[in-house]
Request: fold
Amino acid sequence: MSIPASRILRHIRLQINDFDEAKVTDFQILNFLNRALSAISTILSARDLDFLSASQTYSGSSASAGANLPADFQAVKEVTDGNSYTLTPCYLTKTPTTYEYKVMGEKIYCGAASYTLFYRKFIAPIDDFANDNVALPAYFLGMIVQVTILLMQGAETGALIQTINNMMDTDIPTTTYNKKRERVMGNAG
Amino acid sequence: MNVSEALIEIRNKINDRDEVGLANEEILAYFNEAIQFISQFLVSVDSPLMLQDLTINAATGTLPANFIKMAGIFPVKITGRTVKLLDSPPITLRYFGGFDRADMNEDVPLKNEALVRVAIRLAAIYANNQQELDVTQDKALLADLQNAILAAVGAEPAQQGG
Reply:
């Protein structure tokens, strides 16, 4: 479930009619693409879609020393211990007990012997077109290409966000497990 | 095509087959002027024909003598003819380079035959102009000439943006 950066590059070059690399360099496109990914990622996380969920399992307690958060960490969704019980967040000033965790700075602190962090990730920027992949489902290809080209044409931020939101409304499936669950819980509460 | 053959064709066009009007060196100068014109025109329309690669393996490098402009933006800082890399080397730059000068007994430095025809026509216009013959008609041909250059390299007319 990812799009090779080389495929995105080819689509963009086709659209701007510059396979000869006479007008725009890969360096320029890379920068605009990363800005586009950043904008898309920000708007996506506001919608909290399922494919932005990720998990990382830690072994060993990190109650006092803390363990590094994943590189693409954005926000905590849930933390469970080795038996899949949900842990609760604790005060920032407290050292977490076996059923607690806290996030401080770039680290997670947790008292459980082993635990899994479920988190919302952001779409990481890419470094080079030859080897990198964009961690988005294949149906985002058209949107990424369009947004990148809009940026290259000097689109303003407001108009850009509007465009991305419109595209997402029409292009991206929005029914997610998270939304269903939240609605149920919202009604119950 | 050889440069001396091209000069003979120019002489045919300006009716100076017996070398009574212009010396070979003068015609060669006009021919070079024509080549430079075609160079600059092709670069101004971003023709891929003029593109060249330059790989720099150290933190700084020197731009070649035929350098005209970069093809887009690279992470480099240019000061005069020195180019300094902002990222770590190596990096391959793409730039537009002009055609070399034509010299007697060498091949015409243009990359295809169609462009050589254009250069010959243009050199003939320059030569006639120097002799103060009427070039009004030839001037009117200039736009056609530019289109002829584009047609010669199979490019589209210049367009904005992109």
Chain B touches chain A at residues 46-48, 51, 71-75, 94, 96, 161-162 (CB under 8 Å). Chain B has a mean pLDDT of 84.
